[in-house]
Each structure stands twice: as C-alpha cells, then as structure tokens.
C-alpha cells in the first residue's frame, strides 16, 4: 500500500478559538429543558491531511474532577410569568463575552413564549479542551466521526489502577480512554473500536511537552481546541404547542428550540447510540436523538461550530411527531445576537456553577 503524504498544520496556542481571544488556562453544561420531570440534556479513507492541535500537557488541570459528566441536570427555568416583551429575569450575575445567535420561529406572536440564557462562564477557564473530527467525505453531525476530550478523569476504569500496564480503557464500544503522559484523554465516536483506538494512539506528547492531536488520513478536524467542550452560553425559546400551531400533534405539551456551540452535544450524540438520520434541515444533515432533553430532538449544524435543535416534551415519538419537528425546524430562524431578547415575551437567565 503506497504511503500517504501528510501535511502538518500547526494550530498554535491550543487550536481553533472562539472570537473572544486567547485563553491561557488549561482546562458541563448539559443543556436541559425541564418540564414534569423531563430528563436533562443540551462527526473514510481518502485525503492525507493532518492537523495538529497543542495543549500544555505538563500543566495540571485547574479542577481535574470537572471532567465532563454526561446527564447532569441544571436547574429548570422559572415559568408562568406575564411580562412585557423582552423583560429580563434573574440577570443579577455577570455574564461572559460570547456571541451566540438569537433564534425565533416564523409566524409566532412575539408576546408568546419565553427565552432562556443558560450561562456556564466557567466553561472557558475551567472546561476541558475538545476536538471534533469527521470523515472527510461522509462525516456529519453525530455520524462518521469522533470527539476527543482532554483532560478527563479516569476514575472507575482500569487506567485508575496502580502501575503503567493499562494504556487504554474501553467504557463502551463507542468510547475509549487513553493515557497521555500523566493525564488522560477520551475518544468517543461511531468509527468502530479499531479506528477509535487508532485515533487514540495518535495522541502524543511532543518534544515541546505539548499534546499533539493529528487527524488520520481521510479525516479532518472540523472544530475545537481551547475551552471547546462545554458551551458557555446556550439560548433557548419555549412555547406551548398551541402557540406554534402544533397542538394537534403535541397536545398540551411543550415545544422548544435551542442553539449552542462547543463539542458537548456531538459527544453526547455518540454516547447516546440511539440517534437516527433525519434528512436535512435548511440544507444541512440532521439527526433525531434524545440528546437535548424532552422526548425527542431534531438537531443540525446551520454553520460550523454551531448546533441548533428543536424538541418537545410529551408522549412517545412517532412519525407524526417527527414530521412536526421538521415543520418547526423549517420555521426556525437564526438571527444576529443583537435581536435577542426581543422575539419572546420574557427572558430568564440561569447560571451553572459547575
């Protein structure tokens, strides 16, 4: 088999960055929509390119126990208020400098519904780093790809045992932890054990004592780097089904939409294992899954690094529900951040201290 040449691309200082600048500190928000006990939530062989991202592996994580833990439940937002459009509640704590789009459903009265800002500003200095890799020809959101998270806590796995004989620890067929120097990384995806293990084997410490992540030939790093796992801000809108004209399908249930960045949503898609292709939304590949709270969500990436979704809480999902979620998704608009919060009757702010 001929050798495939690889072009090294150095992503200095930790890789792909959010717009607000450089952060020097090494590093969960699971976006939740709670109603009546709703469980919480909120990428093959061609190519030859290699991207390299760096992380100062010699540094100790600020709080190693802050490894992303799936399934945690943020506090639900208040509900039932009658307020003037755009009125803010709970905004007495500082927010972080991030730019996340506003969102709105076409054809919905602006005096209806409520908005929610879920703030996790500690995601920036304290959150782990993450990279999203996908097959260069077939990878899409939650399909034919993997998420690498570093550093993570190996507690409960063989890696936590004394000695150096344990290098890899499989926690599921889709997830493997790997020792990198004196720290640990997690690789989670749907590529199969052999390709996940091969990807884990490419994590290495260079002579500069930095962690190097290189994409195998045929794969590409589509996003990630410093502070990229947990989203520092998730915006949500929520309505009664009748307010968006879908009461026939959802009855008295809740419908909602959300937008966020970061790698956590895709990481949880791979961990969930029960996601299903959902055609396209606004021309982008979409996926049905339980990730994002409620009974079912429909998610897609309107642009690189941003995940949008619509979902509902109520009965078991069926064909009519999936069709209704597609109708809602077709009506969802992503707007400039400056348009928030004027598209809903009231806006609440909540904070995660984790």
Describe the structure.
The chain is mainly β and 354 residues long. It is 10% helix and 35% strand. The protein contains four helices and 21 strands. The protein has a nine-stranded mixed beta sheet with strand order 3-21-5-14-15-19-18-17-16, sandwiched between helices. The chain is globular.
Helix percentage range: under 10%
Overall SS class: mainly beta
Strand order of the largest sheet: 3-21-5-14-15-19-18-17-16
Number of helices: 4
Succession of helices and strands: EEEEEEEEEEHEEEEHEHEEEEHEE
Distance between the termini: 49 Å
Number of strands: 21
Mean pLDDT: 76
How can the largest sheet be summarized? Answer: 9 strands, mixed
Described by the principal axes of the CA atoms, the overall outline is globular
Low-confidence stretches: 1-90
What is the total number of structural domains?
A: 2
Beta-strand content bin: 35-45%
* Cα-atom radius of gyration: 20 Å
Quaternary: single chain
Summarize the structure.
The chain has helices at 193-201, 247-250, 264-272, 319-331, and strands at residues 7-11, 49-56, 87-89, 102-105, 114-119, 129-135, 145-150, 168-172, 175-180, 183-189, 204-205, 210-214, 219-225, 233-240, 254-261, 276-281, 284-289, 296-303, 306-313, 332-335, 346-351. It has 354 residues and is mainly beta.
């Amino acid at each position: 088999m001929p050798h495939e040449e690889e072009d090294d691309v150095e992503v200095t200082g930790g890789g792909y960055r959010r717009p607000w600048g450089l952060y020097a500190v090494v590093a969960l928000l699971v976006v939740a929509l709670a109603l009546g006990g709703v469980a919480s939530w909120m990428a093959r062989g061609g190519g030859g390119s290699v991207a390299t991202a760096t992380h100062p592996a010699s540094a100790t994580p600020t709080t190693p126990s802050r490894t992303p833990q799936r399934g945690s439940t943020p506090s639900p937002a208040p509900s039932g208020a009658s307020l003037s459009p755009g009125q803010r509640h709970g905004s007495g704590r500082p927010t972080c400098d991030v730019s996340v789009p506003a969102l709105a459903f076409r054809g919905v009265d602006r005096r209806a519904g409520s908005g929610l800002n879920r703030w996790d500003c500690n995601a920036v200095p304290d959150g782990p780093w993450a990279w999203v890799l996908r097959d260069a020809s077939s990878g899409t959101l939650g399909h034919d790809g993997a998420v690498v998270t570093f550093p993570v806590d190996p507690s409960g796995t063989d890696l936590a045992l004394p000695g150096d004989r344990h290098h890899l620890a499989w926690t599921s067929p889709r997830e493997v932890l790997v020792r990198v120097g004196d720290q640990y990384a997690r690789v989670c995806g749907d590529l199969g054990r052999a390709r996940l293990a091969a990807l884990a084997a490419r994590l290495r410490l260079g002579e500069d004592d930095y962690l190097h992540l290189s994409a195998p030939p045929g794969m590409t790093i589509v996003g990630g780097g410093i502070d990229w796992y947990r989203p520092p801000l998730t915006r949500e809108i929520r309505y009664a089904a009748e307010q968006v004209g879908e009461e026939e399908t959802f009855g008295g249930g809740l419908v909602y939409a959300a937008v966020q960045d970061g790698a956590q949503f895709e990481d949880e898609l791979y961990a969930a294992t029960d996601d299903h292709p959902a055609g396209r939304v606004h021309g982008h590949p979409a996926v049905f899954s339980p990730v994002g709270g409620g009974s079912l969500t429909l998610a897609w990436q309107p642009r690189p690094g941003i995940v949008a979704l619509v979902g509902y809480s109520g009965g078991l999902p069926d064909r009519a529900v999936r069709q209704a979620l597609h109708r809602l998704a077709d009506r969802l608009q992503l707007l400039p951040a400056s348009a928030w919060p004027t598209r809903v009757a009231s806006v609440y702010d909540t904070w995660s201290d984790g």
